[in-house]
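Help! Submission page says 'invalid entity' but I think these are all valid:
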Amino acid sequence: MKWQSSKVQISKSCYRKNLKFIESILGPNTKMSSVVKGNAYGHGIESFVPLARECGIDHFSVFSADEAYRVFNCCEKPATIMIMGLILEEAMEWAIQNEVEFYIFDLIRLNAALEASKRVGKPAKIHLEVETGMNRTGLPEEELLSAIDIIKKNGSHLKTMGVCTHYAGAESIANFIRIEKQKSNYQRLSQMVKSSGIDAKYYHSTCSAGAIRYPEMKDKLSRIGIIQYGFWPSYETFIEFSSELEDKIDPLTRIISWKSFVMDIKTVRRGEYIGYGNIYLAGQEMKIATIPIGYGNGYSRSLSNIGRVLIKGIRTAVLGKVNMNIISIDVTNIPGVEKGDEVVLIGKQGNMEISVADFGDASKQINYELLTRLPQNLPREIID
Ligand SMILES: *Cc1c(COP(=O)(O)O)cnc(C)c1O
């Protein structure tokens, strides 16, 4: 992984600021599980997890066992790792052996965990995911009852670490009624587990938006993804939250920046088209710079003629189509541009910033999608 055409930087001081804010949201009695699925939302598991560890995080959530494996291998000091989604049976013994926790959302997996625990000779640490109305994964009530039965008969093999659910869009006010229903279903099903005598360590249901918008549901553990990286789950969540603030200043800071450089510069005559096809016609003599990133490098094609980048502290336009590995930008009115000059695709340069939100709005991608599309093989550098 060298000679790349762009790089990602992650700011430690900004991450610490976001953690302070999250602490203020969660309060002293709620622990944060740092959600690092999707290659830590594009920030890079191998760079981000050690940083989070250094900042005091000791609980991580991932989607799948392959991600858990990566988190496990980059944690020098042990941390709790929780798989919220896919674990293949072939990964179960590894998980149990290393005390990696995982969700149970059907009886097949529960039985597989029981068998694997017997083979390993250690208990499986499980979280019972209950179906409350998201209708994705989760044990419906009848299956939950059977699961409780199985767990009670096999207490030495199945250790219940949590009872959990996920809300179907807590970041959107329009989903309020649906979430309220989910909350009450969750409370009812949690109560069933409690009264069965199973002693779960955590009851957890909130993501970033859930912790902010439904603080009564925070309980002792909250699964925090997007806000730790400095992004709001939705514009709505920010507007609603900040209307309570006197200064209306965003308390979150983006920790990522994405940078490339000028590969070539050329002059284009009036009346010529730029790049493939005919979507950008030069209406005057123009100076353009080519930048060695494109959709093959995570810069979406939907930013053709729409994207903005920073060069020499100035915001300028992407001209024409985003190619597989190249974009052209307008530097007609930017003096002194040279090959090798830094170009910021996301992040700050001087007083200007390209936020993923602008970028996301322009390309109709949400924060989450744009971030996770950043290629895994880009170098990620931790800066102060
Ligand atoms: C992704 C995810 C989260 C974190 O969501 P954010 O909105 O990024 O905070 C929490 N719980 C589950 C089950 C998830 O899949």
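Support: the input was valid. A stray whitespace character was the problem, and the output above is from the cleaned input. The pocket of pyridoxal-5'-phosphate is lined by residues 35, 37, 84, 166, 207-209, 223-226, 233 (CB under 6 Å).
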